[in-house]
Design a protein that fits this description.
This protein is mainly alpha-helical. The chain folds into 2 domains: 60 residues, no CATH class; 168 residues, no CATH class. Helix 4 packs antiparallel against helix 5, helix 7 packs parallel to helix 11 and helix 10 runs antiparallel to helix 11. 22% of the residues are buried.
Length: 243
Amino acid sequence: MQIKKEMKMADAIHRNYLLLPVINRLGIQLGFQDKTIEKVCLKQNVDVEFFLTILNAYLDTNDKSSKQLQAHSVKDVVSYLLKTHSYYLERIIPEIENRINLLIQHSQLNKNEFLLVKNFFEEYKKELYGHISLEENFVYPYMIEIADAYHSKSLSKTLEDKINSYPITSYEKEHSDIEAKLFDLKNILIKYLPTPNDSYIRNRILMELFTLEQDLNDHSRIENRVLIPKITQMETALIALKK
């Protein structure tokens, strides 16, 4: 069952609470009473069709939701993904880091166990930050440049050289293996640390890591199933202009 504009916004959140940060990134904050999604979006000047497409893409991972998202502009999708980056960097990673520091302070970890947790988290954070930097400084600007050229039906020599030497599929191959690092960090917390007197902090860290993992998977799915195929088609069409 897809979320529709006639549904109450509160009901969408009750259906899946993990949509809360997604809704916030799209410009909607809590306190919308019993208003429908359509009325809330109109009041907040949010594109209701794009809003619905993003929410349904997170709830439904099949090809249908990906195709619906492909109908929206590259700039709109990229703008949303940039907001997810801000959410990771400004909210989630600092919060997880604070909880890891609390775990270390309130547990009986020896020096080696302390370093194991701290070093793995630092390695993961470095991988994630590097991945985000690559996307924001190179991948997303390139995507927007391709989309602009495609819609104007104009291909400069500089952009033609970029397509021929470094197409969007090249960026896809360079994605850091951040999923493996995150899996290793979760395993350390689950399998190898001594049993604490109080498991609450460790459980909270794990819950946040699992939630981050799901969010990152959805983020990657939008890139891999929506943006990269769309940009690839645009690249092919642009190169055809020169023939």
